[in-house]
Design goal:
This protein has one domain: Alpha/Beta hydrolase fold, catalytic domain (Rossmann fold). Helix content is 36%, strand content 16%. It contains 14 helices and 9 strands. It has a 9-stranded mixed sheet, with helices on both faces.
């Protein structure tokens, strides 16, 4: 890997990002040069020693776009990558940059030499979609893209934090808790980049994406009250379930191939002692039997399930689940956590 980077060093100095209308080959040994110029830095950024690159194309799909704010200090900046929510069917990277409270976080990160990227990814309603896996693979691609082009953007690719809310938080957990998905022998150098990160932060995220096991892994406490996969199916609805997994019939969910796929989508099963430190919060104040899809998808029990498994495996974490009386943050804010992990 080091040899490849050295050979590409000179080329990377002159690489510029092209517009998204131009196809990006995923089979080239070295990525086709891209052309880009910085956009006007948003007015709400206090420190004008910041470069803003907007709508950078990181892949072939229409929604493979990212925005990135980069502090122009002397040393390469660490990277915080934000993944938006929206149930993998809606949402946009602009959410973070438009939110007043999140803007404060971004300004604080930039002041501490941490770049902030916000990414879009494919929705699962595409007819050729693999279901949620299509969205997750796009998030992986964005991470690897930023690592490959780290010299161009003056980034420190060894210091990366993932941030997400709801589905974006689930995507961040899937990326952060899986084993390294780098492919060292892949002809595309982007795919050779590591997917391991230094920390994962999520709010109101799903603990795993094996929905057929939620009655056992997340909501077991409600089984005596009748909670089962049928409950999940009724709240989510069959059409959404089929779209989520990219299948045509409920029977397909029980095949060996789909069992393997669902296992890989179960982040709880992926947690091991070598995983990054977690910062998990749940803003929902209900803790009762879920009776709506919103309550099912954002129930505090998801955060509790993550905490319980991480504690068993010895993975460090900060947790704020007020509806369950849990707060292990020791006064450390999300901003402070990111800065501590990336400085």
């Amino acid at each position: 890997m080091k040899l490849i980077l050295k050979l590409c060093g000179c080329l990377l100095l002159c690489l510029v990002l092209i517009s998204c209308q131009k196809d990006i080959s995923t089979n080239l040994a070295v990525q086709e040069p891209l052309k880009i110029n910085p956009s006007i830095t948003p007015l709400w950024i206090d420190n004008q020693n910041v470069l803003f690159f907007e709508n950078v194309c990181y892949g072939e799909s229409q929604r493979n776009l990212l925005d990135i704010l980069i502090p122009t200090s002397g040393k390469p900046a660490a990277i915080a990558i934000y993944i938006h929510g929206g149930g993998f069917t809606s949402g946009d990277k602009s959410i973070a940059l438009a939110d007043s409270s999140f803007r404060r976080t971004i300004r604080e990160l930039l002041k501490n030499n941490i770049a902030f990227a916000s990414i879009n990814y494919s929705y699962i309603d595409n007819s050729e979609s693999e279901g949620v896996l299509s969205s997750l693979k796009d998030c992986k691609r964005a991470l690897q893209f930023l690592r490959y082009y780290a010299p161009y953007f003056h980034l420190n690719k060894e210091k990366v934090a993932l941030i997400g809310s709801s589905a974006g938080g689930g995507a961040a957990l899937w990326l952060g808790l899986n084993e390294d998905m780098a492919k060292p022998n892949d002809p595309n150098p982007i795919n050779q980049q590591s997917t391991r990160v230094q920390s994962v932060l999520c709010t109101d995220a799903q603990s795993n994406y094996d929905l057929l096991q939620w009655h056992n892994l997340v909501f077991a406490e409600f089984k005596m009250a009748g909670f089962s996969f049928k409950t999940v199916k009724n709240l989510v609805t069959v059409p959404r379930l089929l779209k989520f997994y990219g299948v045509d019939t409920m029977e397909e969910l029980y095949t060996i191939a789909m069992w393997t796929k669902r296992t890989k989508l179960n982040m709880l099963l992926q947690i091991t002692v070598d995983d990054p430190e977690l910062y998990i919060t749940s803003n929902k104040m209900w803790s009762t039997y879920p009776i709506t899809m919103n309550q099912l998808l954002h129930h505090p029990y998801h955060s509790k399930a993550l905490k319980d498994k991480a504690d068993v495996e010895g993975v460090h974490g900060k947790y704020f689940i007020p509806s369950l009386g849990i707060d292990t943050r020791d006064g450390e804010s999300m901003d402070q956590f990111i800065i501590r992990k990336l400085m």
